[in-house]
Each structure stands twice: as structure tokens, then as C-alpha cells.
Amino acid sequence: MAYTVVGKSVRRVDAIAKVTGKAKYTDDFSERNMLVGKILHSPYAHAIVKSIDVSKAKALPGVEAVLTYKDLPDIRYATALPGVIEAIATDDVDVAELKYGTAGHPFSLDESHRDKEDRRILTQKARFVGDNIAAVVATDALIAAKALKLIEVEYELLEPLTSPEAALKEGAPLIHDDSERNILSSNGYEIGNFEEAVKEADRVFEGEYETSIVQHCHMENQVSHAYVDSDRRIVIMSSTQIPHIVRRIVAQSLGISWGRVRVIKPYVGGGFGNKQDVCIEPLNAAMTLAVGGRPVRLELSREEAMIDTRTRHAFKFKIKTGINNDGKMVAIHISAISNTGAYASHGHSIAGSAGGKFRYLYPTKALKYDPITVYTNLPVAGAMRGYGTPQIFFAFESHIEDIAKKLNMDPVELRKKNLVEVGYVDPASKNKIMSCGIRECIEKGKELINWDVKKSLYKEQSGDKRRGLGMACFSYASGTYPVALELAGARIVMNQDGSVQLQLGATEIGQGSDTVFAQMVSEILGIPMYMVHVISTQDTDITPFDTGSYASRQTYVSGMAVEKAALEVKKKVLEVAHKLTDLPAHVLDLRDQYVVMKESGEQVIALEIVAMQSFYDRVNAQPITSDVSNNARINAIPFGVTFAEVEVDIKTGKIKIIEIYNVHDSGKIVNPLLAEGQVHGGVSMGIGYALSEQLLFDEATGKPLNNNLLDYKLPTIMDTPDIGAAFVEKEDPTGPFGVKSLGEPPIVSPAPAIRNAVLDATNVAFNRIPMNPQRVFEKFKETGLI
Amino acid sequence: MAYTVVGKSVRRVDAIAKVTGKAKYTDDFSERNMLVGKILHSPYAHAIVKSIDVSKAKALPGVEAVLTYKDLPDIRYATALPGVIEAIATDDVDVAELKYGTAGHPFSLDESHRDKEDRRILTQKARFVGDNIAAVVATDALIAAKALKLIEVEYELLEPLTSPEAALKEGAPLIHDDSERNILSSNGYEIGNFEEAVKEADRVFEGEYETSIVQHCHMENQVSHAYVDSDRRIVIMSSTQIPHIVRRIVAQSLGISWGRVRVIKPYVGGGFGNKQDVCIEPLNAAMTLAVGGRPVRLELSREEAMIDTRTRHAFKFKIKTGINNDGKMVAIHISAISNTGAYASHGHSIAGSAGGKFRYLYPTKALKYDPITVYTNLPVAGAMRGYGTPQIFFAFESHIEDIAKKLNMDPVELRKKNLVEVGYVDPASKNKIMSCGIRECIEKGKELINWDVKKSLYKEQSGDKRRGLGMACFSYASGTYPVALELAGARIVMNQDGSVQLQLGATEIGQGSDTVFAQMVSEILGIPMYMVHVISTQDTDITPFDTGSYASRQTYVSGMAVEKAALEVKKKVLEVAHKLTDLPAHVLDLRDQYVVMKESGEQVIALEIVAMQSFYDRVNAQPITSDVSNNARINAIPFGVTFAEVEVDIKTGKIKIIEIYNVHDSGKIVNPLLAEGQVHGGVSMGIGYALSEQLLFDEATGKPLNNNLLDYKLPTIMDTPDIGAAFVEKEDPTGPFGVKSLGEPPIVSPAPAIRNAVLDATNVAFNRIPMNPQRVFEKFKETGLI
Predict the structure, then answer these.
(1) Judged by CB atoms within 8 Å, which residues 617-636 of B form the interface with A?
(2) A15-22+487-631: what fold?
(3) Chain A interface mutation, best of B110, B250, B618, highest count of A Cβ atoms under 10 Å
(4) What pTM did the predictor assign?
């Protein structure tokens, strides 16, 4: 459909705020008098605290509180002024014994559907190097750092389990007493009957693939501050994707009523899923309680943030595929081991989610998925852009390429024989594919990279620098339905001049959601963008409830709430216009700040006059607002493809990306410029994932080796080629304005496309990423290329 | 009716915030980098600026901008970054030529009903000593003050008209070119036919009475700061009673769309009506525009605030009353001259409002009211607690006392013969008296002060110290209906534990409205007070629309919106409970955090379970909120009486108050302790009005003589007796929980009661207040008492 504002590359609503420095982030709200919190991390990957002596730390002038697992604040005491202020908690709660989960999922009324609760604010048992043993609150950061050094801890060392293999071996010590064989979960599925189907296949192929631990490296580290307000509530300002979930988890971690916590989210400097986890807020809350409610600031350094927040799960896959001679896959079996590190976080759901989103791309008669998520004594893996799909698609899109090679088939043609079609209903989720542009995406990608010409050009290569082409496809989802609740809220308040404020539960974290929401409102209400004022800050006290920014849900799921809110305002405007003009509301529409005749576009009455009437009509005054909630019980499946051209330096093992294109079917693109930005960011992240990024640990001790931005090889602008983005806009009937998700998808397919291009160039199949120069060099030696 | 929370003296919701210093007022939000604005005031009461040279001021290092009437900022230029930020204004507007009104009234769609627009942000014609001629914005206050001294102004002096008599004399210069004979308005009314009715009266009495100019003296002076945000809007934080009206008037003063202004109101340190006027915000907005949108802070000193904001109108009354021998008044004629000072502000409506509210007390066959509101070259009079009624009731309650004396009737009995009864319909407003406890108030007051015993005890006095008793009655209103729009809004958001946030358009300015609103919500939802979190800050971007805090409208008018919002939430809670239990919603009620059987009180399901269901039911999730607006088209009339006992020191002229009681029929009292506080404050203000307060001016030049808290005699705690407060709770069917107004009423009747007590003690009738020692001494000499 043709729209006025939707589909246009309008400027971000926060562009000026951000380039002028007026946009305020969490730390911009820090005040000079705030106390500073710092954390004592375990130096051992697996150990029990035998004794802990904080007396010297406590005695240091400027130290206001020292917390350990055994003396977390008594909430009732800390916040009570006897006779004046009642205590926050109504029951006696031993905070030190409370367990909670940190994953940023909506709460579930179904107990079996809740996240694993295996975390305490501070622990007696260190489960990874970096685990939180104690904490200090002091008047400044230097004193706090000094106090940490004065805490004397005696550890009993346990065997560090630094790999899933070690964790799974018979007799391995249990990382969590209540876990079986260090397995967090092993929930797979089988569609059809794999064993039967694979028997009928003409050929069977097997492959093994492996991904590494990487980290989000968002620009702004985790930071928060917390205090107890005069209403006796814990107020936390935090750089989070999920303020309403932070509220819940902080309350759970302290055993208090959820309404006793208020969370405020200002501008956020990136999250990529790492801020869809509640990492520092419970401890920050405990810190303020320990100092009588005074404000305490808690900020992680980069070195801390890289190991003490979350990482991306490393996966090992074994895939077995039965395929007929015509190229039709009939049976797929994927088994996976996911390394979730020391605590559950999102671990149990990420392996499942990967298998769920994979299902939409190549429907087969039989598909069996067997994931095991394993605890190890490494930093905690959690949500990260793609949520398991970069891993599974790296494996499968490498595997299908290997099959094509072995079958001597064009890998693109092989994929096309197996791609999903519109109308397909996923047998497990019951989601129906209502739109699908994957074939057009492939055609567009081939064209952009000049596939056919280059393919023949690079056919026979020798020499030190060899070029190759590769591609990979993916399917994704828009939000989490039907796995989790998809509730979103929006509120619109119209001013006297017809301009509006838009309040959202959904969080802007840099992705541009505020802008696309404003475009939707601008479109529906027929007002220019500058008349839509987005309240970018979320405050659990007043913002409509929304579970937050994750799962690529915002434009689709929260967009539905925005659309609903705007349509309600439009309805009210037209009702007032009807009262003023006697024209039936259904023949009217809104355009260019006017109520117009829907058909002819003829202007009937200025929006401003209607708005003024709504405020000041002596009899019928009723300011025009809407405050809606939408429970999305549907999902739209986006698709896409990466095409990459690489040049491999055989002697140095250096892989250079010559060209790379992502082509997405994400339904209607609300803002092409912002969409392109999403693709640039995702592909860049995918390039790092493919070629250079890996968080390294000493195998014997579990100590991190490169938890800093010098040694961790995030691609710089010098490593990043021009990235091409294109869109096939198959409007989905379920999405507002026909949108499907685009937030995470760009990260999913670059790594396998690059891997397949390297295979094309060198005939060497890398089944493990990153393909960094050392690993490439070793593999080339191994395969005899050098 | 019996309630659980309503009617109880619960602690103020902001008590802890205020006593611990956590409550943040406007200046607490000032930031170190803010520029400082200062104003150049006219030293002449009536003068024209012939020339103004700001070059020296502009040249002073640290001066960022100098504004005069002729170079107010070009809005288009100041806020535009060409090519990046569009200008705010869409039309060319000459701000220097824009006129606006400052009164905090709701806007009216009826042009004839709007406030007089006679003000410019800066003026070329000084109309009182203190008028705003120029302004400076500098990096700090010292530089700004120095710069003011460097501005060279040449004035052409005009005759200063320092009294209504001078202003009204033939040939007096016009203060405003478009005013006739310096008269702002002269809208009176006549009910019945006075001339005919008075002829039929048995006796006719006449009297003249006069009140003085006083000032509000709220603790927190006018203060605001303003900046242009990255959304290109002017954001103003201000200590105001009326944020939504500030938004409108600032926009009008600058000729921009109203939605381009955002106003935030934090805690306010008192207003008493003075902050129901938009005194400094337009200039503050102009200041930030003049410096490219950088934040500018504008705070008035006490000396400035006392003459450059608003004062209480001084009135002169002539009253003629026809009365029958049985004591029944049959015809009243009140003519009044109201001195409104240099600009209109509320002037035109205050004289009218006084006459309107007076009408309810003693209905007579004929009542004629002839007010004239006159411009003079004195500071601007505006809204102040009572809004004209302390003046008119001082006059009439003195007059009726004088009549009783002349008729040798008991003044209480005389009043009782004339008092209104339930069911009376005011012929002009059509307001119907639905509740009236004035007779019970009088009885209670008599009892409290031991009237009969003391009256006989003090009958025959001589000596230097003489005691006497006096009383005076009043009627008032609850809000402004039917004169103005009475729109109020409230929003409630329920949390997962059943606690709620309450967002109000109505402004807490110290009177305790947040607390009584929270009580109403607590009562209706059956949750304890600590589970109602009031958002005390108003922000025009997100707070429900409400015209603000004035006219004693909050508990009554805004209370209706709060009640409506809470009832909507209750309805939604019971609907969810119905879904969960199958019990019909109409048999259910809310009590003690439970859904209960309405009749038996038996607990059915915990509120928390209902709330959780509303958030997390996978199919029916719909968080429970309400966002309502209420247009109150009704008014309830409160009544009351003051009883005072005084001891007059004949030799010094010093009047000491021995006992004083105010007894109010304000309907249901939601919070007796807060109500008592209102009475204490109002009576204390009334004592100052009666005995000591007067803003003095040099008659020849109009220069203020005592615009500071040393020379202006505000009563101190040493001047204030124990004040007694009592209530006759005639629940009014129109008010939420039966309330009527109480905010302003306590100020209305103390002055005449004290005056009548002095008359009783000394036989000397003071027809002018304040009765300060000098005036008392002079009068005693004049009457031969000394």
C-alpha cells in the first residue's frame, strides 16, 4: 500500500537529541552525592567460600556497607524508620537464601513455564571466574576499589568444568546441586518420524559444526543507580531493554511485592539482548537497602561487563540429513550441545528457540531436534541478537552447502527445491506463513552480487589470493508467540493543536523503534512527524505495560498496540468532527492536519478545531487520549539471505570480504534508512562472528583471556566492507502496515554465507567459527593447501 | 456514610518526602550550567521608555542576551538550525507586539468569555513601579545584576494614578489606550428590583467599608527554568498551580502552537492563587529562545515577588440594605470599587466572583451588585485565596453587625433570620443548595467559644483592656461552574500486586490534595494507603488534562475524576474476578486487598491474583488501567462561620486574639487532620488580613514602601493564637464521598468576626482593615476613647 509517512526514510525522532548530546543516558542522571557500588568477583571458576572476613574493608573510612552472601541486607530493617516508615517487606525474608532467574521473559502463570531460578544476589559458591562473592558501597570509586582488596576470602577449590564435555563426563561435580548431570534442559522435538523417513531417503549426509562464545559489546556497559524513595519504594534507573521485567525480577530477588519497585529506562546505548537480562539491578537494589536507601550507582567496567553479564552460547551440532536424488530433503536430525555457562539465564529457551525458528525455512517430512543445554564453569550465556539462530543456521546452511557440493548441485538450486511456500502451517507452533519472499530475496541477492558471472569467473582458481561466492538463507519470527506472552501497550495524548504525545511500553535501545512508531501515528492521524512527540523514557510507574525490547518484537508486536492506540484516537477525532459537522464519521478521514472527506480528500475541518473542541466544549469536553494494551496472539515469519564474496589470502589466512549483501523479506519496511542501518549493524556483527570474534578462556582454569576490547577482536570500520541491504517487501496481513520483524534477522545468515564463500574460493570447509587467520592457516596446513 | 480510609486523619502521602528533604521543588532541579535571567523593572509607576541603550550591558563578559520590548527574540531564528531543525513558529510573529492575558482561567471557545489581553512580555510603557522593561541572560546572577545596571533607559514620566479615585477622575491619563476611563470592567447584576424592594422595607441602613492591598507571601517565590529540547519544544519547569494553563499562555505570548510548549510542575511551596497566574514563564521562555534554547533559570527575589507578581485587590464598598422590623432583609445594594492595579490579570472576574459567591448566604427579594474594576498605576492584583470574598464578606458581615447594633438585635439571631435553606436555587447561576449546615455551624461555634456566658460577662467593660466577641458567616463555592469549564482528569495504573499509581492533572501545592485523592482511591479499591502511589509531578506531556489548583476545586471537581477513575478500575477488577470465579460482578466488592462478597464480606479471591491474571493470562491479558476525564457541570456550596474573642489594649491600640474558631460545613471531611491544617492556615491569613497586613505605597509616586518580609507585617507564630477548627459534615450528594470545598473558605470570615469582636469590646466600628495599632489608636482618639 502507498502511505504518506510509513515507508519513508524520515529522520530518527531522537537524531537531534543524540547528535547534540541532549539525549540523556543512565549515567547522565547520576548525581554527585551518589554512593558507588563495586563487586568482588571470584578469581576461581569453581570454588566454595570457606570463610570471608570483611572487617578490614568495613573499617576503611568512606566505606558505607560491605555485603556478602551471608549478610545481605535485612530489608525490613534497612528501609524502616521505626514509628515513621513501615518496613517494605511484610514477611520475614532471608534474602541470602532467595533464588531467582534473570532471563528477561514475561512472567508465566504456569509454573512449569517459568525460568529456572538458580541465582542469588551474592553467592557462596563461585561457578565461574567473575561470579559475585561480595560487594562494597563507598563514597567514591577509589575507596570502593580499595575496600574490595581488603576483603579476605578463603576458597575451597573445586574442579573447573570448562567445556560441555567435561561437565557431562561421568562423575563430574555438579555445578548446581539440583541439576542432573549439569544439564539445564534437553527439550527437543520430533516432527514426523526421522528414523523411518531417513531410511527412505536416496542419500544421507552427516556433518558436524561448531560456534564459539562471543559477546555483545554494546557501547554502553551495564549501569544503574538505585535508591529508596519517600514512598518507601526502590527506584532503579537502568540501562535495560526490559524495565517491567527488571521490576519483577528485582522484587523476586528481594522477596518483596512487585509494586514496591519502580524502574526507569532513559536512552540506552545498545543492548543486543544482553540487556534483556537482569544482571546488576538486584545487587544494586540490595546495595541501596544496605545504606538506608541512599542512592548507589553501580557501573560495570568493560572488563567486568564482558564476563559478568552474558555471552552468546557456543553450540556444537551434529546433523544428519536424508535427501532424495531430486534434491528434496526428507529427513533432518539435528543434535546440539549448547554451553550455557554457570547459570541458566536464557539457556533453556535459546536452544529451543533456535530449533523453532529454523523450522520455517525448509519444511521436511521428518525433522528431529535434540538439544542439550549444559552448565559449565564459564561466564553465563544469555540472549544475544538472533537467540540461537546464528548458531543453528551456521550449522545447517554450511551443511546444505556441503551436501550440494557432494551432490554436485548448484547450492542455490538445492535450497530452492526445499524452500517453504505461503500457506505452510508449522505443525508444532501452528503458525501459518502468510507472506514469503525468500525466493525473490534470493533472486535479488544473486543479481546484486552478480552471482552467475562471478561464479563462472572464479571457477578455477589458484595462486595466493582466491575469490569465492557464498550464500545462506534464514527464517526467523516476529516476537515470541506462541511460546510466550506478547503484551504491548501504548498511550496517546492529543494536545490542543492536534499534535500528540506517544507513550510506549516498548523500549528504544538504539534500533529506531521510537521513530517507526511515530511514523505509524503520523500516518494514521494525518499529522506531520514533528507533531508526534515520543516519550522515549519508560517508567514502570506510568508507562503502559510492555514486556520490552527483544525477540524482534517491537515494530510488529508493539506496533500493533501503537496502531490500535492511534486508530482509537482517530475514531475519537472523527466522532467530534461528526458532532461539529453532522457528516457521518465513516465518510471522514484524517490528512494534512485536517478532517477530510475520505473519498475526495476535500478538507472539512481543521484537526486543531476538533482538538480545541475536545478540550473546551462547555458541555462535551473530553480530551482525546487512548491508553491501550494489545495481546498479540499471532506471528509473522520473516525471511532473508546473505550473499558474500570473499578473497582469501592463502598464505596469511586472512579472509577479506569483497562484497556482501543481505536481502530481507521483513514485510513492509516502515523506514528504509533505519532498516538499512539495522542490516548494516547485523551484518557487521555477523562478519565479526564469522571471522574474528571469540571470547577465550584458559581451558585448565576457566580464566578469561581476552575480556577487553583490545584483545577481543570486534571488527573495526577497517575490517568492514560496504554492506549492501535490499528488501523484498512482502506485506504480511498480520502485521501493522504489513510489517514483519527485522531487528535480529540481519545477524543470522552472514557467517554461513561467508563460510560458504571461503569454501567456494578454497575448497576448504570450515565447520567452526570464527575463521580467524590462525585457524584458517592451521586448516590450510592440515588440508595441504599450504 | 462510614468509610475505611475516607474520613480518617491518615498521614500526608508527601509527609516523608517533605520532612526528609527528598521532595524536589523547581529549584532543586536547577543545574549548574544553567544561565541566569534577571529583569529590569521600571522605577516609575507611569512612564514611557523614550530610549533604551543596552550596548554596555551586552558588552559585559558573561552576558549572553539582553532583551527589551523592541528586540524580543525572533522565534523563527533563535530555535532553528538551518537545514537541520525547522523553526518552531510557522508564521512570522512579532513577539514584541503580541498581547496576552495572564489569568489562570480555562480557555474559552467563546471569545467574549476570554480574559483581557493587555500584557506584553516586556513593555515600552511602564504602568507600575516594577513593570518589566528589559531582561538580561548571563552566566551567573552577579553578572546579570551588574548588566541590569548598565542598561540606560530614558523615561518620559506620566502622571501616576495611585488610587481608583485618581484613575477615575475626569481627564485622567489612560493606563491602557483601549480602556475606557481606566475601567477594566463593571459587570454587576440585579436580582429582583432593588429600588422597588427597598421602598417597601421598614428600615434602611447604609455603610461604607474598605479593604487594603495584601500579598500572598507563599514560602517559595516564583521560580522557573526553561530550555528548548531536541524535539524543538520549549520545556518549562515552574512552581505553578496551573501547568496546563501555563502551557497555553506561554504559547500565546510567543505566538506558537500550544503543543510546542511543555510544562512540568514539581512540588510547590505554596501558591494561594498567586501561582494561578502566569507571571514569569513567558519571559523565561523568551529568554531561552534568545540564547538558542540553552537552559535559563529565572527566580524572583522576595522583594520582586511582592510587587511583580500579584496582590489581593483592595475594595471599597458602599452598602444599602432595606430590612423589615422582623429582621428579614428584603433589599441589598452593594456597590464596589476594585483596584486591579496596572494590568487586568483576574481583575474582571474577581469582583464578579465575589458578588456571585456572596449570593448564597442571605437570599433576599432584591439584590443589586455594582462593581467597578479600575486600573491604577500600582502592582497588579490577581487571584488570592478567597478571590474577592474576604473583601465582600468583610464589608457585609460588618454591615449586618452594624445593623444589628442599631436595631439592638442579637447579631446572631439577625443572621439566622436571613440564612439560606436547603433547596434554594440561585436565580442567576441556577445552582441549587443540596446541603447546608450553616445553622449547625453557628450553634457549634457559639458553644465552642462559650458565646452566651462570655457575652453577658463582657457586657459592661471599661479599663485599658477590654474583651469582646464577634462572629461572621460566609458562603462559598466548589470550583467555578457555571462560570468556567471544570474539566479534570485522572489516570490509574494497577501493578501486579494490586498496588496502583495515581496520575493527576490536579496539582498538589501544599494543600494536601494528593493525600485526599489517594484516600479516595484506597477506599474504592479496598487497598491500604501505602499501595496507592501518587505521581505528584504534573507534566503537560503525559498528565491527564486538568485546569489546575484554584477555586477550591480539587477535592470536589478533580475528586470526581479520581472517583470515576477508581470506579473504572474497580469495575475492571471485578470483571476479571467474575471470569475467574463465575460469580456475578455485581455481588462482589473490594476490601482489604481481596475481592469479597458485597453482602457478607467473605473473601473470594485475592486482589493480587486478579492483578496477576490481568497481566499474564495468555488469552485475556489486559493490564488494568483507567484514564478518565470528567467535566463537572455542578457546584456545591460550602458554608462556615468564624467566632472570635479579642482583647483590645485601648492605650496601645493592640488587638489580641484570645480565642478564634472556624466552623465549616464543607460536606464530608476526607482527612480531618489536613482539613484542620487548611483552617489553621486560612484563619492565620485572615488574622493578618484583619490586624496587620497591608502593602504600602507612596501616594505621590506609587513606589512600594514595604515589599519585604521585615516591613510587611505577616503574622508570626507569636501573633497567632491557638486556632480552633470544627466541622459540620453535611454530605453533599453532588460531591465525591459528599465533599464540598474547603481550600479557600477559612480565609473568608475571620476578618469581619475579629472586627465585630473589636466593636463588641470597644463600641468602635472599624470599617477598614487592617486594624493595625496605628489605625486603631487614631480611631480611638477620633472617637474619644483615648
Answers:
(1) 617-623, 625, 627, 629, 631, 633
(2) Aldehyde Oxidoreductase; domain 4 (3.30.365)
(3) B618
(4) 0.96
